[in-house]
Amino acid sequence: MYNQRFDEAAERVKLLTKRPSDMELLELYALFKQGSIGDVNTSRPGMFDLKGKAKWDMWNNKKGMSQEEAKEAYIKFVDRLMEQYKEDEE
Fold first, then answer.
1. Are 85 and 18 in contact (CB under 8 A)?
2. How distant, in Å, are the alpha carbons of 4, 19, 56 from that of 28?
3. Model pTM greater than 0.85?
4. pLDDT beyond 50 at 89
5. Which of 6, 7, 47, 55 is the most exposed place for a label (fewest CB within 10 A)?
6. DSSP track, the chain
């Protein structure tokens, strides 16, 4: 049920005309990974990979969330971002 809506949300988010904040991008990443893979399945990146560690940590914070829950949360988050970052229509 969620798979088609999840895939559509992943495509829609690419259409944003304004860049979300770094925290919003990390949340998107974590929810997408949790929804598509499940709990983190890799080791934490090394100390010099700051971006990799931030992404891994955010994903690891979703540990235990079901893939279905993560997909639904991702869809809702994308909807919110689409509303928040849509271009002003004038």
1. yes
2. 17, 12, 12
3. yes
4. no
5. 47
6. -HHHHHHHHHHHGGG-SSPPPHHHHHHHHHHHHHHHT-S--SPPPPTT-HHHHHHHHHHHTTTT--HHHHHHHHHHHHHHHHHHSSPP--
